[in-house]
Every structure is written in C-alpha cells, then in structure tokens.
C-alpha cells in the first residue's frame, strides 16, 4: 500500500511528525503525495459494515431519504452557489457515503479525494439541514462520520491533519505548552492588575465555584481575551480558577474526524474537572469548544450519563446570569447606541438551544438590537464552521459561502456584529476583508468592559 512521508494513514503522535507537516508550506508535498495514496478498501468496508450494524440510524437515514429536496434551501452553500443541484445536502451525502456503501468500499484514490473535498468544502456540519428534513435525516452528523472514514484512510486536508496532531502532542489546537499557558496567565494578571487592583488569575485552585476553560488561540494570539475574562470575573466577585492542564476546550480533531484524538483531548478537560472539584465549568466564547466538550465529549469519553463530570456552561450563560443577578451592572449611558446584530453560533444555538441567553444579554447592553433573518436556531452558518475557515485548499469556496452571511448582515442595517464564537468571529472578520461592507465585529468581553460599572473599591487609587 503506497503511503507518503507526510500524507499517510499514520496518526501524528510525535513532535517530529508534526513539525515535518508544518514545514511543508501550504501542504504542497502533502497533496502531491495524496495523489499516490492507496485506499485500504478492506479496512474501509469493514469499518462501514461495522458502523451500519452498530449504528442503524445511519443505514436507515441513507435508505429512507425521499429525495424531496426540502433540505436544499436549508443549506447556505446551496444558496451561495446559485442553487447548484450538487450542493443539495441529500445529493452530497448520497454521492459520497451512499456510494461508499453501495460499492462496499471498493473505491479508488480519485473517489476518496472527491469525498474529502465534499466533506470539508461542501458541508460545515452545521446540522441546519436536519432541522428541515421531514424524516429528521441529519447530513451534518453523517458528514462527521464521513470525515472519520477519510481520516482513517489518510484523505484529510493538510491543516486538519496538523490540527489533529496538535491535540495529540500538546492537548491543544496550537503549540501551547503547560509552561506557556501558566506564563500567559501570570503575565495577563500583571498587565491588568494596575487598573484592577487585586486582580489575579487563580491557577489550580481546588473547590472553586467556576473552572474556566478557553480556546488555545487566546493564549497564543489573543491573551487580552483571557485578561478580559479575568477582569469580568473579578468585578462579578466570582470564586474561579483555571486548570494548569486541561484548560483547552476546542477540538480540531473533531473537524478532522480523528475520534481517538477527540477522546484524548476531552478527557484532559474532564481530568481537570475531577482534580479541581469545581462546582461548574464555564467555557469561553467558542461554539465548537462547547459542542466538543459538553455535547459530544461525554460520548467520546464513554460517560454513560451523557453529561460532563461537573455541570458545564457556555460563556453566554454566565454573562446572562451575571447581568440578571446584578453581579455585573451596566451603565445605561454606555449601552450600545448604534444598530447592532448578533451572530447565532450553530454549535451552541441550533445544537444546544442557548438562544434565549444571548437575547437576554442583548436586552441589557444594546438599545437598537436587530435580528438577522432567519435567526436563532434557524440562522445560517457563518460560513466558517467545521474547519472551513482554516483550510487553504478551499478558501475560494469558503469565500463564496460567506455571501449568505454578508447579505443577512446587510439586511439588518447594523454596523456592529456581536459574535460570541471564535469561528463566527473569524468568518465575519474575513467577510469584511473580502467584501468591505463597512461593519465591525466583536466578542462580548471587550464590549462588556466598556459599559460595566466598576465598584469604587475595585478602582485604582487616584494619583
């Protein structure tokens, strides 16, 4: 079986293997090797056959599709691509997974590359199609499975192979070591302590009310996000901590279809929950982190309860609670005056039902809040989910997909888009860079810090 040095069926378990992939600029050698990668058809069919036996819903979904086309308009990529019939969700899954089943895994390299391109550039696994299917068929869930088949065979986008390797080597989506993480926490506390006396970022505190976890991009690229969270917890008087290990909530392994790495990643967070014995966990403003750790994670970890070891919450739930209970108070004069809209994250709105919390927050902070149409669980994917943001091979397709969100935002007349999710934030940033429609975008934390009332005893002494 032909396997390349970089593109192969091997899992990235060593720093050396990971570095070799990183050194391959834009994955040039990786994709060249992919053209010669053999398909292990026996392994492929055995995996599919076992799945169809043990997970009957996938077999049933493939069989009961009525080809009614009701899923078509639910897909933002179908709409963005001039209603191309090949972008209809039912067609996309039948032409990939359906064919793999029909052919009993007897497919070649070209077919597997087509499956890979479809799974990562024609579906973000946002699950909107499942909301509209009269039979409840969820192509998003099935495409997650298809990604797993592709990963097993080595047909996975270069960036996703790297992301999976990061989780295996660092237990984070980026090369942030434990030392890096601790240093960043201490650095941010020192940077902000002058303006907020007594500010600390507690590390490894046992028995706190809140264990806070983040997206690795924050300590790597946006350390001020961590500082802003610390300041808001400080103002709210929360008893909180961050773990020394198990602080990373995200899972590029989930985007890659590397289910073994998903389990490794989420168990590191669950170990921290058990070790620190906090009353609850709060995850930063990240949709897929919440989905990976709170929604999907318990099943990867084999927890029969389907629940995380301690109660777990998205950041919007904590913010809504803090505003509702008066832990955070907003200065009315500093509320957002300009037209503002809100991006509903697929992963914690459609797939976790948290839309009411975000609307509650808007009622406290915005005077001219304008809903997108559609909104809440019916909102369209931002165009960057499922790994779409980060795969260079599909950048053109991703940018086409952004047009649906662009038009939704323009229709509101809003100049500010609040996006409490990293993928959504990135996609809307890229949307503005691509189309220059004159908008700004923001997480909740920096907005809240501009309008929250700081108690006198927490203000620095006047010089």
TrEMBL record:
InterPro entries: 4Fe4S_Fe-S-bd, 4Fe4S_Fe_S_CS, Cys_rich_dom, Helical_ferredxn, HmcF. It comes from Desulfonema ishimotonii. The keyword Ion transport does not apply. Keywords: 4Fe-4S, Electron transport, Iron, Iron-sulfur, Metal-binding, Transport. It holds the Pfam family Fer4_8. It comes from the Bacteria. PROSITE patterns: 4FE4S_FER_1, 4FE4S_FER_2. GO terms for molecular function: 4 iron, 4 sulfur cluster binding; metal ion binding; oxidoreductase activity. Residues 112-137 form the 4Fe-4S ferredoxin-type domain. PANTHER family: FUMARATE REDUCTASE IRON-SULFUR SUBUNIT, HETERODISULFIDE REDUCTASE. The keyword Ribonucleoprotein does not apply. This is (Fe-S)-binding protein.
